[in-house]
Each structure stands twice: as C-alpha cells, then as structure tokens.
Amino acid sequence: MDMFQHMEWDSVDDGLGELMDEPTYLSESPQSKSTASSISEHEFSCHCCYDILVNPTTLTCGHNFCRHCLALWWESSHKNECPECREKWEGFPKINILLRDATDKLFSEVVQRRRAEIQANPKISRSLLAFQRYGDNLGRSRTNQHKGAGFFFSGVLSALTCVAVMVLVYHWSYGVVEQHDLLISKPVSRWTPEEVVSWLEQLGPWAQLYREPFQQENVNGRLLLMLGDEELLKAPYSIENQAHRRAVLAELDRVKALGVKPPQNLWEYKAANAGKSLFLLYALKRSPRLTILYLYLFDYSETFLPFLHTCCPAIAHIDQGVESRFLETQVNPSWRQWAEFLVKYCLLPYQLIAEFAWDWLAVHYWTSRFIIVNAMLLSVLEGCALWRLWTRARIRTLPRKMWNHLWKMLSQGFAFALLWPFVPQFVCNCLFYWALYFSPIINIDLVVQQLMHPETQAL
C-alpha cells in the first residue's frame, strides 16, 4: 500500500516538473507556442480593441481593458464608467500587475509590437497623460479633504466671502443706488427745481454755464417738458451755442419718451433694469457674441449704439466739442466703425467689453478694473478652449458645439425670463455682485489650471 502511494506522488511530481518546464519548452518549440497562444488569446483580450491586453487595467466591476483604451474611452465619453457594463468605477483604476506580467510572458512579441505602436501615436500618448493627470489630481483632492487645517481655512474663506457679499449688497442697495433712484423712477412732471438742475449738470461740464438761469426761473419738471428750441435760444436761458441746444433738446426728447431720467451709469442702469442688468452680466460672461447680437436686435438705440460708439469711436474732428459726444452715440455708425466692430466681435468679443469698461474709469473706478481683468481672463480661457480643439483634431466638431451652446443659452435665457419675477431682490443683488467682483477671482484659478495642466481639461 505504501509503495502504491509513493508511486502516485512520483507521478504528480513529474507532472509539476513538466508544467514548470513548459515556458522553456514553449520558447523552444514554435508549434507548441502557437497552440498555447491560440488557446489563451480570448482570455487575455481587451473588449475595446479585441487584441492582447497591454498594461491591463482592472475596474471595480472586474472587467479588464488596455490602459490606453480606457484612457481614450474616458476622454471621449467624460464618464467614469466601464465601457462594457457601464458600471461606474470608484477611485482611479490601477494596472493589474499580475495580469500584465502574464501577458508579457505569454505574448511578448505582440505586446512589444503594440507598445511601440502606442508610443508612436501622439493622440494615445496625450490621452494617457491626461488620464494620469486626472488620477493625480483626484488623489491630491482626496488628500486635501483629510487635511484639517486646509478644510478649516477654506471654511473661513467661504464665511468671509459670504460676509463680503452681504456688505456689498447692503452698501450698494442702500447707499449708491438711492442717490440716483429718485430721478430714474420719479416722473418728470413731478421733478422739483433742484432735481431739474441736477439733471442738467449730469449732461456734462458745459452745462454748468446754464445752471444759474434755470435756478432763477425756478424751472420744475412741467416747465422743463414745455421747453423747445426757441425758448432755449431766447432769454433768460440764452443758449446760443447750437451744439449745446441740440444736446439739451436730444436729452429732453429721451426724457419725454421714457417719462423719467434715463440711466447715466451702471448703478442707475441696475436700479432701473434690475433683471436685465443681471441677465446681461451673466450672458456677457458666458456668451458675449450672442449677447451683443441680442442688444443689436432688441435694444439698438438705448444700449447697442452707445456700446458700439464707445468701443469703436469715429474719427473726431479738431473743432468738435465735448458736449456733442452724446449726439455722436445716437447717429448710425460709419462703415469703418462697423468693420472694426465686426472684426472685434468675431475674434475678440471680450476686448469690446474691456474697452467699454475702460471708458467708464472716471465714473466706476474699481468696478471698471474688475470688469477689465475679468474680460482678459475670459479671453485667455476662450483661447485655451480653441487651442484644445485644434491640437486634439476636434475642430470639425466646432459647429456642433456652437449649436449646443446656442440651444443651451436660449433655454437658460427663457428659464430666466420665467423665473425672474419670483426671485427675491436680495438674492438677485447677491448674484449680481458675486458675478461682478468675485468671478475674476474664480477665473484666475481656472486660467492657472489651464496653463499648468492644459491636457487635463476635458472638452
């Protein structure tokens, strides 16, 4: 009986020895190698490229894919899910070392050939680099979540930001706006003589010459509406300068048409058009070209013409006075102005916004600077997005992206028009000042990410 068991163990040892010597035997016999490979190829194939796995990566669902196939799938789909069963993976997928060593030994020639092809393909190399950068950033973000000090300081920063927003809202809601709210909301017929003089002074420095006659005649709102060219030319007003009379009459026509004083600066415009100002602020940031087109179609004389004349001014004559500047903004632009405007509109739309804000530095000192900086940052972000389209050979997808963007902006604008009457004024003020003063800070971080890691940004 013992002899029989000893013979069985000897046979098992011989079988194990043959198995251990099998790789050497396969390397020596091409026929045996091809047989073993044909049997094992299906078990070691990627379900994306249907070829031998190269740097096999195992997902949480258990499926294995080539590393570069998974990177290409992640870059094109923008989803963290399995290409086969659509189950989302957790964390960042790692290379299965055991499976990689097995494929390298069994199919060394095929794996070496495929690796050479992968290294020679720049598109695959960029996808692998972006995928690895994504994993590194994901690991850093998770590490930062466990840092108590960083979490504490981020909470303090968020609290200070909320306090700053509330202070700004209180300051501008009850300070600056109320100073101008009377004239932009009070009917002209109810203006007092002091308010008429205040309106006259806002026309320009040249209007100071006629302040005293208006005060002596005690001109109120009703009398102001009755003034015409002949009355302004005669005593006691004696406005003999024709350009001055034209400027006063043109502003009087605007006042008669609106019934109130038209807005003269950003805060008055916000007080008179709260919903429209919030819409334009966000729309100019998200899609300046569509917003400027909207102003051209639906707000030509009041907003678009002054905007165009400010960004693309006409050639000024030497004998032209400062008082005729308002009249210039109401005439149709010349073909030179249109040509300059269209070039900037197509190529550098944010430059138009920066030039418009630059013209208002004397009125809105810090606000204009915030707008200019934000316009520069948004121009950089737009340039980076176009560069990614060009380098990744996706420029042909630009029409489809433009259509999707148009549809998205139209739907958001329609939703804003429906929900605007139900939004509290305090919430709108918070959104307005956040977009105006804190958006540049956020865009600085986005620009730094784009410039330091441009390959990690998904389109």
Automatic annotation (TrEMBL):
Record function comment: Membrane-bound E3 ubiquitin ligase that plays a role in several processes including apoptosis regulation or reticulum endoplasmic stress. Has anti-apoptotic activity, both for apoptosis triggered via death-receptors and via mitochondrial factors. Contributes to the dynamic control of IRE1/ERN1 signaling during ER stress by inducing BAX inhibitor 1/TMBIM6 proteasomal degradation. Promotes the activation of TGF-beta signaling by mediating the 'Lys-63'-linked ubiquitination of TGFBR1 which is critical to activate the pathway.
Q: Which UniProt keywords apply?
A: Apoptosis, Endoplasmic reticulum, Glycoprotein, Membrane, Metal-binding, Transferase, Transmembrane, Transmembrane helix, Ubl conjugation, Zinc, Zinc-finger
Alphabetical list of PROSITE patterns matching this protein: SAM_DOMAIN, ZF_RING_1, ZF_RING_2
Locations listed in the record: Endoplasmic reticulum membrane
Q: Which PANTHER family match?
A: BIFUNCTIONAL APOPTOSIS REGULATOR
Which residues are in the SAM domain? Answer: 191-258
* Annotated protein name in UniProt: Bifunctional apoptosis regulator
Q: How does it assemble?
A: Interacts with CASP8, BCL2 and BCL2L1 through SAM domain and also with HIP1, IFT57, ESRRBL1 and BCAP31. Interacts with NGFR; this interaction inhibits NF-kappa-B and JNK-related signaling pathways.
Q: What is its EC number?
A: 2.3.2.27
Query: What organism is this sequence from?
Result: Amphiprion ocellaris (Clown anemonefish)
Q: Does the keyword Endoplasmic reticulum apply?
A: yes
Determine the domain of life of the protein's source: Eukaryota
Q: Cite the CDD domains for this sequence.
A: RING-HC_BAR, SAM_BAR
**Which SUPFAM superfamilies does this UniProt record tie to the protein?**
RING/U-box (SSF57850), SAM/Pointed domain (SSF47769)
InterPro entries (alphabetical):
SAM, SAM/pointed_sf, Znf_RING, Znf_RING/FYVE/PHD, Znf_RING_CS
What are the protein's GO molecular function terms? ubiquitin protein ligase activity; zinc ion binding
Its UniProt entry gives the catalysed reaction(s) as: S-ubiquitinyl-[E2 ubiquitin-conjugating enzyme]-L-cysteine + [acceptor protein]-L-lysine = [E2 ubiquitin-conjugating enzyme]-L-cysteine + N(6)-ubiquitinyl-[acceptor protein]-L-lysine
The UniProt record lists the RING-type domain at: 46-86
Q: How does it sit in the membrane?
A: Multi-pass membrane protein
Per the record, what is one GO cellular component? endoplasmic reticulum membrane
Q: Tell me where the transmembrane regions lie.
A: 150-172, 370-390, 410-436
**One record GO biological process:** apoptotic process
